[in-house]
Amino acid sequence: MRKRIYKVASEDLGRSVSDGDVIKLAPKLSLDGQKKADAIFADIEAKALRDMKLMPGMIELCKFLDNETTIKRAILTRNVFSSIDYMYENYMKQHNVTRFNPQIARDSLDKDGNILTAKPQPDAIHYICRECWNCSPSEVIMVGDSYKDDVVAGNRAGCGATILLKPKFDNNSGNDNESTLNERIPTFIITELSDLQPLLLKRYCTDDKFITTTSKSIDISYY
Question: Residue 222: its pLDDT value, please?
Answer without folding.
Answer: 41
